[in-house]
Amino acid sequence: MSEVSVFLCMDHPHVARLLDVYETDDQISLVTECMEGGELFDRVMQSKRFSEKKAADAARQMLLALNYLHSNGMVHRDLKLENFLFDVKGGNHLKMIDFGFSKFLDPKARMKTSCGTLAYVAPEVLKRSYTSQCDLWSMGVIVFVLLSGHMPFHGESDEQIKEIKAGNFIMKPEHWINVSKTGREFTKALLHLDPNTRLTPSAALEHQWLKKSFQQATPQFDPSVLVALRCWAIAPKLQRACMTMMAWSLTNVHHAKVREHFLALDKNHDGVISFEEVKKAFEIGTNSDNPAETKISEVISEMEQAIQSQICEIRYSDFLAAMVSSHLEVDDDVLTSTFRKFDLQARGFVSSGDLRDVLGGSFEGEDVEALLREADSKRDGKLDYEEFVDYIHASRATSISRHRDIACSQSVRDKLSENRFVSVVSHDVKDVSHACCVLQ
Fold this sequence. Notes:
Number of helices: 22
Number of strands: 13
Shape: elongated
Distance between the termini: 13 Å
CATH class of the largest domain: Mainly Alpha
């Protein structure tokens, strides 16, 4: 139950998604997305060691997931090569899994439970007094293996415990000869014996080794992304509810088409997009000499009229829902999967009771009966699959049409400078995750 409560809060491009949970009298089964690419451990075993650029790429992805956890008050406590998986065969996109030892942090308390996998466990965990910095030691072990092809601590359990507590590891020249000085420094900075001097996730992401490995031009902000957020924000509430649910049925192929936009906007790597990050990206985009990249309509004012909220962040699932409306093609599998999430009794139709079970008594202040009437073209008090599909297609067509028809306006840039940004988020991520998780 503890793992489920933590997993339900996960909403990040580099964290695997929990799809369903089933409970019987004696067990709970968790169904996650299928990670076809296999474990990072297996990839290391095949290649023996990673090139420095490849290792830096993997480290950066893992640290993005870890920074998201720590930024939201959670600690993993069992980071290891086996707990990072590639999403598709032959791909390079990593996701974190296995939250069996994870927990929400009490900022004023130190953890005492000795848990994790010995070869990756931090010294302070063995001493039963530690903080979330234990995860950074584990990251140091992972990076050590990626760069050298060898574990920093090995041997019998007693011997490993002794060496870990003392922080004794050796970078043998024959294993590290081809690794840069900054790569070695980065590894050592993660394996500091003192957790207070050890790199934090955010500091690690800003380390010269990762920065040097990713010397890329700042990605240009795509104005159509903000337009898509605007179109979704002013969409009817049932449409937003359906698109939010559909976001949890998208495949890794869908995610790959838009997730880089989300990660590019999330400058501080905390897993959400703030107003300041949108504003900064917009300013970068409008510095271009290409007029097409400066064309945004009255986005902010329309979003203010649509949602009376001042929540200033966009989470990944909300971002995906907005992209479904205009940027992604959805096939029958996605539609069927989404419909089944509403059709809890598998009767072939969705009743107001089903909507209430999934969304609660209301969604964004609208009662579920009113939501159902929005798509109930047959006026029989229920929504069958045909009506559902027709409604989704009509909604997407409207969103795409609005997206294309938005006129250009320099005044939007002026409105942005007033710091008046309304997020498309009107619910907590726990509610979004709960909506897609059927607990039977």
